[in-house]
Structures are given as C-alpha cells and as structure tokens.
Amino acid sequence: MLGLRLTSHQKEFDQINNFINFNVVRVGVVTCSEYPKLCPSEQFLIHELAKIGHQPVPVVWSSSQDWSKFNLLLIRSVWDYHKRYPEFMEWLHLIKRLSVNTQNSVDIILKNSDKRYLKELEKSGFAIVPTELLDTNDTSEILEKMDSQGWDRAVVKPTVSATAYQTFLIREKADLRKVDLKNDQSYLLQVFMPEIYKGEYSFIFFNGNFSHAVIKKPKDNDFRVQSDFGGSFQLVRIKDEVVTQAERIIGSLPEIPLYARVDGLIFQDKFILMELELIEPELFLLSDELRTRFVKSISDVIDLMH
Predict the structure, then answer these.
(1) DSSP H helical ranges for 224-278
(2) pLDDT per residue over 75-117, tens digit each?
(3) Cα–Cα distances in Å, from 117 out to 34, 77, 112, 121?
(4) Strand partners, 60
(5) CB-CB contact of 148 with 141 (8 Å)
(6) Which of 15, 66, 74, 196 has a CA positioned 20 to 30 A from the CA of residue 234?
C-alpha cells in the first residue's frame, strides 16, 4: 500500500525536487559513437561540471534519446558528422524543433558545417586563403582553375569535411589520379601556401574572449598539420595585433559562440584565415588553467539560462 501511495505521488515528488534543484542543469555533452565517453582530452568535463552542481552525462548524437530531458546540449566531439552529414543535419533540425538549448547554437553549427562560409567571410572583408568553388565534379576543372589563377600548387577538399578528410595536394596532372570527386559532394580548391610548413596557428576563444593559441606543424614531407597524420602542436604566444585580427572574425558572427577556433597562417603580421571551427574543434586544453577556463565559460553560459 505504501509503495502504491509513493508511486501515485511520484509526479508531485519530482516537481518538488525540480523546484528545490532549479539551479541544477542537466547537461548532455554530445559526442560520437567512436568516443561514447567523450574524447580522452575532454572526459574531465563530466567530473568538473558535476563538481559545480550540475548533472552532466556523455551522449552520442546518433543514439536514440529523449533529447528534451536535457537543459543544455554541449556539442563537442561529434567527429563523424561529415561522414554522416544528412543524418547529422536531421538531428540538428530535431534539436531545434524541440527548442533544446545548445552550445554552440544549432544556427551557428548549420552555417559553419559547409566551408562555403569562407567566401562569405571574404566578401565581408576578411583575408582568407585564396579559394575557388569547383563547379563540376570533373577533375579536369581543377587544373583549369589552377591555370586560370596562376597557381602551381593547390589543395582540393570537400566543402563538408573535417580532419583533412578527402583533402589532396595537387602539384601536377598525375596527382589527379588520387582525387575522387564524389557526385554527392561539393568541393573547394585553395591555393597551396608554403607558409604551412612554418606552422598553422589556432586561436581559441571562449564566449568571444581570446584564451590561448597553438602552432601546428606537419611532419616532414606532408602538408597536413593534424596529429592523425603525424603533425605536432604546442602552445605559442601571439602578437596582440594578430589576435585582434582573429577577434574581428568572431565579432562578425551573428551571435557569440561558447567556443571557437580560428585557424590560419600569419604572413607579414597579417592573419590569413584557413578555417573557422565552430562545431567540434580540438580546443588544445593542455593545462589545468585552460581546462578550468573552459569550464568557467560553460558555467557562465549556464548562469545566463536562469
């Protein structure tokens, strides 16, 4: 009888409990199926967010969930989205229909998921690596565009990609043999800038504020800076005037994201944008100080939700 009485009043108990704990936020830290417990470098988020009184849990974006149970979805290591793009787009639109708070926001992610945003930033006056859109999926167009632009080397990549996925360096006609342009994808062609051998810079921002920077270098005889291909990285100090150039890019966005990574090259103290990472970037949280800074930024966003 007592058990029945408790069951019948469970809803009332839950309502009272929710009222008492109105400051406790259920945070889904969104990841992919390859890293169901989050990528190793960000597993600390679960402990740290719980320590400040919230209820964080890793959750795979492609899993079956009652997404409306979360007060906040912190979208992080969704590192397979570019390989499951239509499905990921459907998921984002579902989250938007459910009006679940996400960081970064669904609108920001939708816009940032296709690298054609680079041409829009260029129209807004920002210096980007010279970029052309391929009009067809015929590899002969690559050499035609390189010839018309006077480029002796270029990089071709899908407009939807991550971690140098299907990214190729073209130096001569023979290199086209390794390029497979899929009919269901669109592609960018970018001039190859040898400055990449000196290092690509990543500027990390939290809530619009510059946090830290790293320099990433490719291994010998490669142009890809990602660690997946043998690249290396280290924290680096950057001149204020160069940081300001990256800050302007963040400031041009329709809303300030919780996290952002601005990737590019520095040439004669001028920042040249390669990519603006607003979906799932590695944030290079290489010290306790930087990890604490990121958690504080998340906490600041949560505070604004109340």
Answers:
(1) 240-251
(2) 999 999 999 999 999 999 999 999 999 999 999 999 999 999 9
(3) 28, 21, 7, 6
(4) 31
(5) no
(6) 74
Contact assessment for residue 102 and residue 78, using Cβ atoms and an 8 Å cutoff: no
CA distance 133 to 122: 13
**Rounded to two decimals, what is the model's pTM?**
0.89
How much is the pLDDT for 84? 95
Q: What is the DSSP secondary structure assignment for residue 225, as one 8-state letter?
A: -
Tokens of 278: 């607003």
Provide φ and ψ at 292, rounded to 5°: -65, -40
Q: What is the CA radius of gyration of the chain?
A: 22
**Residue type at position 101:** N
Cis, peptide link before residue 104, omega less than 30° from 0: yes
Place of tokens 């708070």: 101
CA distances from 105 to 43, 51, 62, 65, 128 (A): 21, 25, 18, 19, 24
| Long-range contacts (CB closer than 8 Å, 24 or more residues apart) made by 236-241 | 236/201, 237/213, 238/201, 238/203, 238/213, 238/266, 239/269, 241/269
Q: What is the pLDDT of residue 22?
A: 53
Tell me the C-alpha distance between 164 and 226, whole Å.
8
Instruction: Give the whole-angstrom CA distance, residue 248 versus residue 270.
Output: 13
Separation CA 32–CA 256 (nearest Å): 25
Considering only CA atoms, which of 87, 81, 80, 25 is closest in space to residue 57?
A: 25
Place of tokens 């160069």: 242
- Compute the distance between CA of residue 306 and CA of residue 304 in angstroms, rounded to an integer: 6
pLDDT tens digits, one per residue of 157-207: 999 988 777 889 998 888 888 888 888 889 999 999 999 999 999 999 999
Instruction: From 4, 61, 7, select the one nearest 29 (Cα to Cα).
Output: 61
Q: Taking a C-beta distance cutoff of 8 angstroms, is the pair 201, 249 a contact?
A: no
